[in-house]
Amino acid sequence: MSRARKRGDAVDLKDVLATLSLLRPPRDFEGPPLADAVWERAVGTRIAHKSEPWRLEQGVLYVRVVHSVWASELGLLAPDICEKLSEAGVLVKGLRFTVGRILREPRPAEPPARRAPRAAPLPPEVQRGLHAIFDDALRDAIGRAAATAIGEFSEREARTAPKATRRAPKKPA
After folding, report:
1. pTM for this one?
2. Rounded to 5 degrees, what are φ and ψ at 129?
3. How far, in Å, CA of 34 to CA of 61, rounded?
4. CATH topology for 30-99?
5. Which secondary structure element, helix H or strand E, spans residue 43, and what is its range?
């Protein structure tokens, strides 16, 4: 015989767990419908960080986005995104967007791009060696490569050299 539950009554743990199982993905869940790299190639890095595909059902790709503005923007780009996904081998007829928290781990930031070192003047012995090369294009290419390598070496040495102290050491009295 069951009675109506009142506020504050105890609840069986098995009943609570049964309701929680409805929130879990099915046991045969395999993860996102496509690889992060495929999604990023289709939409670009900036959009990929603000969205994630989470289900592909009957040709419709469901995408979670961080804000409704992103959903609106991606809705306008949907035909292009579907085309790029098709080129990657993912057959998608349409996209549906939901706003929510992105669940996948953020990717580490790319290291900052290095600037090219300045070319340094070539030492006289290198210049003499370059004059022995008869092909003009080859001589120029080797000269540029040598000047860049010497410049990079000089910059690296300047960065790693100990800094000079600001005050001169005291003289013994």
Report:
1. 0.46
2. -65, -35
3. 10
4. GMP Synthetase; Chain A, domain 3 (3.30.300)
5. helix 36-43
